[in-house]
């Protein structure tokens, strides 16, 4: 009788051990959390240091705050955002500028209209939305650069593109957009990944400069918005199921005003003439590109090289390798960029911003902030800086999807994640629990059987 019980117990134990679920904590599965990627355009890494930012501070305590991150060069909006979405340096993804241009027809399209030129974005690198969708996830994007385009015949499944003349600074609109993303897209439609873009504090930083009271006020608006986002996530019960990454595309630096500095005006440089240029992209902050006419490359290059102490002039193949802004056919033969404080003017000064970006990505003013919070992240951790190409593999890891070829690596961010037990550890723990239960059960049964036997024997004896 007793042996029979033991055999049954062993069988149950073995069955339970064999049936222990093989959980894959790195791949897609029921344990995967949702992910929200937020960009506040032009939010420099140190913008929280001269303003009260209670919500950003709380987020840092609840999650991870990087000291700063390094954006790709060219440090401007569309190229840097597409690096976040693809994990590729700009020379590899090919979205080389905010502007689309055609060097033959001289046609140029500004930031907004470039959003709708599919071929400009769909240039060999897939944004994470498409990769996630191909692997069975549901993705959305609101106002994020690249949202409007079609990639290899696919678009992001749920999207909202801003109208032509949009007020990127309106806090009421920001709240409506957040309600849509959290309440409708994540909660009702059960999306797995959403990218969400805000056009500030970039615009205010350009207009008033990064050291202005207006910029500080806008940072407070961003801070309120971060609080609002986290409240909404809480309201919809998503706090434990949703990871949030908040970052930006670049920083902002003060432009030195005329009179204080010798401005860079190409037409005034001795030996340089726009007559030798077939196509130019200048008057766009501190960086520019030139396509000289046939046979004029050396002449143009020699005239410009060393012509101004704060102007850097390179043939594209000579660009410093660390900038990863050399090896793409869309880049023009001569690339120019200025030191912080300076912008590059063509015929005469036409740029009057007090703040600019587009400088070398080693310049501290160009570094964005980076914050994360959510179930997969550590708490109250200040993290070393890293390049924003590494955000993409982190996002793919969080979503449990296989990344496309990219220039980033998870090694640079994985220490901000909560360590996950691997399968062997989990199975060993499960087996230990099952084993312990079996032994306890066995002892209980032995007790019951022994007690019953003694009780039966006693009753029989009493009946006699
Ligand atoms: Zn930007």
From TrEMBL:
The chain crosses the membrane at residues 432-456. Pfam families: Phosphodiest. Keywords: Membrane, Signal, Transmembrane, Transmembrane helix. Residues 1-19 form the signal peptide. InterPro entries: Alkaline_phosphatase_core_sf, Phosphodiest/P_Trfase. CDD domains: Enpp (cd16018). This is Ectonucleotide pyrophosphatase/phosphodiesterase family member 7-like. The gene is LOC115024815.
């Amino acid at each position: 009788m007793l042996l029979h019980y033991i055999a049954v117990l062993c069988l149950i134990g073995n069955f339970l051990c064999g049936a222990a679920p093989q959980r894959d904590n790195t791949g897609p599965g029921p344990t995967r959390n949702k992910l929200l990627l937020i960009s506040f355009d032009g939010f420099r890494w140190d913008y929280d240091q001269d303003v009260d930012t209670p919500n950003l501070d709380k987020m840092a305590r609840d999650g991870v705050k990087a000291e700063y991150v390094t954006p790709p060069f060219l440090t401007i909006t569309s190229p840097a955002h597409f690096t976040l979405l693809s994990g590729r340096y700009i020379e590899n993804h090919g979205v080389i500028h905010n502007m689309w241009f055609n060097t033959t027809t001289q046609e140029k399209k500004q930031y907004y209209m470039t959003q709708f030129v599919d071929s400009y974005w769909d240039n060999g690198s897939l944004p994470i939305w498409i990769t996630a969708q191909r692997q069975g996830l549901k993705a959305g994007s609101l106002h994020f650069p690249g949202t409007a385009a079609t990639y290899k015949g696919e678009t992001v499944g749920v999207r909202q593109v801003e109208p032509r003349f949009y007020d990127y600074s309106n806090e009421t609109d920001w709240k409506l957009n957040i309600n849509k993303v959290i309440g409708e897209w994540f909660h009702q439609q059960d999306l797995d990944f959403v990218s969400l873009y805000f056009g500030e504090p970039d615009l205010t930083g350009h207009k008033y400069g990064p050291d202005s009271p207006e910029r500080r006020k806008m940072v407070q608006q961003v801070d309120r918005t971060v609080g609002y986002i986290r409240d909404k996530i809480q309201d919809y019960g998503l706090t434990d199921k949703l990871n949030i990454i908040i970052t930006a595309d670049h920083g902002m630096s003060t432009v030195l005003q005329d009179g204080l500095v010798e401005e860079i005006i190409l037409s005034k440089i001795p030996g340089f003439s726009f007559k030798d240029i077939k196509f130019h992209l200048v008057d766009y902050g501190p960086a520019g590109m030139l396509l000289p006419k046939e046979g004029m490359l050396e002449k143009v290059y020699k005239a410009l090289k060393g012509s101004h102490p704060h102007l850097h002039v390179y043939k594209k193949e000579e660009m410093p390798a660390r900038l990863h802004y050399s090896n793409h056919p869309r880049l023009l033969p001569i690339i120019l960029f200025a030191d912080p404080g300076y912008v590059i003017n063509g015929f005469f000064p036409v740029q009057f911003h007090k703040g600019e970006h587009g400088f070398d990505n080693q310049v501290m003013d160009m570094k964005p902030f980076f914050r994360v919070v959510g179930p997969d992240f550590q708490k109250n951790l200040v993290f070393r800086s890293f390049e924003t190409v590494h955000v993409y593999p982190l996002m793919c890891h969080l979503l449990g999807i296989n990344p496309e070829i990219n220039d980033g690596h998870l090694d640079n961010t994985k220490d901000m994640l909560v360590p996950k037990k691997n399968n062997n550890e989990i199975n060993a723990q499960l087996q230990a629990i099952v084993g312990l239960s079996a032994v306890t059960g066995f002892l209980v049964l032995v007790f019951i059987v022994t007690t019953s036997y003694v009780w039966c024997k006693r009753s029989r004896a009493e009946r006699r």
